[in-house]
Amino acid sequence: MSSHLTSILVTGATGFLGRHVLRRLVGAPGVGRLVLATRGRASPRNDDSEQLEYATVDLMQAVTLPSGIHTVIHIAGEKRDESRMDAVNHQGTRRLVEAAARAGVRRFVYVSSVGVYGASPHSGWVNESFPHTPRNRYEASKDAGEKCVREICAGAGMDSVILQPSNVIGLMPNQPRPLLGLMKMVRSGYFTWFGAAKPWVNYVAVEDVAAALVAAAVHTSAGHDYIINTPAQLSRLVGWIAEELGVPVPSRRLPLWVGEAAATLGSLTTRVSGRNLPINRERFLELTNTTQYDSSHLMKDLAFEYPVGVEVLIRGLARSYRQDGLL
């Protein structure tokens, strides 16, 4: 294999985001050997590219990487089980980046989250200089993982690139369908605006995150922290949905205090009876959010353009749900 081709090891390659990253890496210019980290033995499938190899990497144990790896893309993490978050997202990342330093890896790309900023729903414009104040176990574990990556890479002379996606959206078999509830509210005419503020949403297509990851992995510049996001005003998003579904754009608006009361009641009802109402505290915060995550740094430094974008993402989801008879 030619020496100018980059050898890359990927963790989490079989997950939601990892599968999209792998599709982009196979056959990409400048990418040679691809090593997929697995927790056990793995045999190549018949449809595997000849580029692919496998290595046993268990983040819960001591890690040793194969020789000759130039770049590590670390996607694997724990988002559901709180009891495992620190062990995987923090300590597991530490083991992996220490192993990368020992193996002479030159670049370490870590997938974190905008959650590390702990921004409130009305924090305004958030970029990479915003202070980190994580508010839950997941956010704290990813923030601790980031610190490990920065410190160990700096000590080893290894480039570190930390990518912080917002809400990653895309369809995955046998998984909940993103934004379906919102689209049903628009379709039925029940969608309601609260207060006078102009809310924003922070969504990004999984294909766009994968493209940003690959760009960061193969770009020649030194590493940095980058937010990955395609923010949009909620009014535009609702308009795209209404247009795709052939219904009027919702215009009903209620005072903010009415929405707050309804959200409190909805959350209380769910806790007491297990029954979900159309509005609860979490949904109310989403519908009134004014925080925006700024990804201009990524676009400028890497000359990066999102291949999908938020409008194509939202319209595509609405068409898919309509064709499946869900709307």
Give short descriptive properties of this protein.
alpha/beta; Rossmann fold; UDP-galactose 4-epimerase, domain 1; 2 domains; 7-stranded parallel sheet; 10 helices; 14 strands; globular
Q: Mean pLDDT score, rounded?
A: 89
Strand order of the largest sheet: 3-2-1-4-5-7-11
List the quaternary state of the chains.
single chain
Q: Could you give the order of the helices and strands?
A: EHEEEHEEHEEHEEHEEHEHHEHH
Assign a percent range to the helix content.
40-55%
Dominant shape = globular
> Unreliable segments (pLDDT under 50, ≥5 consecutive)?
43-47
End-to-end gap: 51 Å
User: What structural category arises from helix and sheet content?
Assistant: alpha/beta
Q: DSSP helix count?
A: 10
CATH class of the largest domain: Alpha Beta
- Looking at the structure, the CATH topology of the largest domain is Rossmann fold
Our count of domains comes out at 2
Task: Give the DSSP E fraction (strand runs of 2 or more residues).
Answer: 15-25%
Cα-atom Rg, whole angstroms?
21 Å
CATH superfamily (homologous) name of the largest domain: NAD(P)-binding Rossmann-like Domain
